[in-house]
Please model this.
Amino acid sequence: MITDLQKQQRRGLIGGTTMTAIAGVNRWETPADAYLDLTGQLEDRKTNEAMEAGKLFEAPLLAKLEMDLGVQLTRDVFIKDPGGIYCGNLDALCVSGPEPFIGEAKTTGLVGPPDAAYGDPEDSEIGENLPESVIVQTHHYFPLVDLLPNVPKIRLAIIPVLIGGVGLVRYRLRRNDELCEAIRKMGRDFWTKYVIPRVPPPDSVPSLEVLKRVRRQPNKYVPVADELVERCFEDRKKKAEAIAQSEKSDSYLLAALGDAEGGTYSGGTVTYLESKRAGYTVEPTTYRQLRRKQNKQLSKEQ
Model:
């Protein structure tokens, strides 16, 4: 978990998450997002539900790792490359036991669909069945750990992952020195080509959430193309109309169900069952959602 002090220390440096965006393997951020961040054009990120869930479960996941392996972890290790452009905030570091390792706790599927890239942990040591973002992040950290005094060269990362609907799964990832160097070169090239000259990377569009964090200059106006304005507000109008029509269609279908939780039709069944949403940072809630289950034959034909 990153503290306010560490946020200040890592500002303007390439951290593990930023490197995944530069490499194009971050599901949520793009290289253009990384550029805006590294050039200081963004407001601080607001914590979302997924981030809160990750923070909430990080400590128990690492405590379970300590207990199972019989080792002691140093938590929340911040490393800054002196005079360089890299930094890292490791969840944990173990320099005792049979083999030293980096510990990175992850969660997925707790407040959204699970990352399907997490597969069989038996094949994880060479990077199989692990998300590319995790592979890049850990290989960004390996060379940084080399900078720590009195710490042996770390060649292993252990990654406990809490997967919604599955439980705790543990992965092991072996260090690949060629990949470490390739990632560092990618970071250096990005810094030289885009960050220093303040030139946005081509063929990359910032994500909407990041664009909302761009620092705006009060009373500053710039010319924008007419078609951009017209398209934006026309699309917003279509979206509002589509939402209104969807809600109207929901009302007709729910009215047809009456007090039933489900219905049948020629193509299968439709249900309106109660689901529960866990309370990580807010109170737990229950909700209902319309779902359709098509007949197998009809589904194959479509």
Q: What stands out?
A: The CA atoms of residues 236 and 242 lie 10 Å apart. The first strand starts at residue 74 and ends at 80. Residues 223-257 form one domain. The chain is about 40% helix and 20% strand.
